[in-house]
Amino acid sequence: MRSNALSYALSTHGCSGYQTINEGLPFSIFEQSLPVWQSEVYSQILKLLQLEENWDSYGAKKISISAAKAMFSVLSNLMLDDTPPPTIVPTSSGVLQAEWHTRNIDLEMEVISDSVIDVYFEDHNSQISKIEEELRVDLTKLGECIKLLTSRA
């Protein structure tokens, strides 16, 4: 499991060198030294935290700080430095989903918590069956999907 400055910043409040914005989600002034995916994901999450309750006009919940931390924690533990950044989208239940539709792979992961993730994976270059399941605690399958996605150039 990897640890980095941004995931540390997301898990702590009031550290020197960090400014607190968006209900206590810290922003690192050193963000540029991180892998590209981290900066992009962080930026997307900050924008999604601005959504108000009922953002979809159908009663969607506001995205919580805990949902943002869970998403970043999961990605920090699974992503490689050169993994392409996902698109982060809000869900009506108030959590976040990361999506990749690239390199002939479709991968979607809805992070319910840092130990419960709904995953959909399909490799269009392979006869491997789709993965569509809820993963709990053991994220080995998801890590393998991300490694495959990263390895395709």
Topology:
Layout: H1 5-11, E1 18-21, E2 25-28, H2 36-48, H3 65-78, E3 87-90, E4 96-102, E5 105-113, E6 116-123, E7 131-136, H4 140-151
What is this structure, in a nutshell?
By secondary structure, the chain is α+β, with helices and mostly antiparallel strands. It has helices at residues 5-11, 36-48, 65-78, 140-151, and strands at 18-21, 25-28, 87-90, 96-102, 105-113, 116-123, 131-136. It has a five-stranded antiparallel sheet.
Report on the structure:
The strands form two sheets. A five-stranded antiparallel beta sheet has the order 3-4-5-6-7. The model is unreliable at 1-31 (pLDDT under 50). It starts with a helix and ends with a helix. A hairpin with a 2-residue loop joins strand 4 and strand 5 (105-113). It has one domain (5-151). The chain has four helices and seven strands; from the N terminus they run H-E-E-H-H-E-E-E-E-E-H. The protein is an alpha+beta fold and 153 residues long.
Largest sheet: 5 strands, antiparallel
Helix and strand pattern: HEEHHEEEEEH
Q: Which percent band covers the strand fraction? A: 25-35%
Any low-confidence stretches, pLDDT <50, length ≥5?
Answer: 1-31
Separate helix tally: 4
Describe the global form. globular
Please report the distance between the alpha carbons of the first and last residues: 24 Å
